[in-house]
Amino acid sequence: MKLSGKTALVTGALGGIGRSIVERFLTEGAVVYATDMAPQQTAPLFDDKNYRYLSMNVTDEDAVMAAMDVVRKEAGELHILVNAAGIEIEKTIEDTTLDEWNLSFAVNVSGTFLTCKHALPLLRHAVGGEITSSIINFGSYDGFIADPGLAAYCATKGAVHALTRALACDHGPEGIRVNAICPGYIDTPMLQSFFNGAGSGGDGKTIDELQQSVRDVHPLRKYGTPKDVANLVTWLASDEAGYASGQLWVLDGGLTAQVQQMR
């Protein structure tokens, strides 16, 4: 098992991608602290002795500190931090309110900042010999190029990309690796919301027609699954990726590799 003996904390753990990461980490032998907004009593449970759930709002510094304190008291160290919490507001910049803009940055950027900041002592404590610890942030291919109607989302993901590189430079000498995964179209509730939203540019197409047209612009003629993302996250979290840091790992079925008119 790739993650045996390791402790991980995953934010956004009840979302499509986050849940898949939690499931894979448990399969690989990690002790997993899964965090999300749902109260403790309403959160779904995994039947695994290594699973812990913590209710945590990533925008609340006190809540983040409290969660890290639980990890410190119970595990003593943290080997893996995965920042999968995120929101997407489907509007142009003209239609985006200041509150919506601030909320996007609070969750996607400040949330990543807060969890990284307060996890660092635990991540540092886990380093030893050839063993590194790993932060895995979530950027997006929208941090490189832009989908229509996602202005605030694109801006936040560009910020996460820059923060990831800075963290890797600052904390690499301490044995802490930092990378970002930049997914393209992944079959999640967020993607389905995009298909239903104004940003998708549906042009009167049915949802099925729109989904197929999106698949067809990919060289692989499909979009990804949460398991595809979890596979890459697991490798970056493992000791096999011990020399991987400071990188933005695009996972998009080849979408951004092509000249867009050549389909």
From TrEMBL:
Q: Which CDD domains match?
A: SDR_c (cd05233)
Which UniProt keywords are given for this protein, alphabetically ordered?
Answer: Oxidoreductase
Note the superkingdom of the native organism: Bacteria
Q: Where is the Ketoreductase domain?
A: 6-184
Pfam families cross-referenced by the UniProt entry: adh_short_C2 (PF13561)
GO molecular function (one): oxidoreductase activity
Q: Which SMART domains match?
A: PKS_KR (SM00822)
* Family named by the database record: Belongs to the short-chain dehydrogenases/reductases (SDR) family.
What's the name of the protein?
NAD(P)-dependent dehydrogenase (Short-subunit alcohol dehydrogenase family)
**Species this protein is from:** Paeniglutamicibacter cryotolerans
Q: What is the lineage of its organism?
A: Bacteria, Bacillati, Actinomycetota, Actinomycetes, Micrococcales
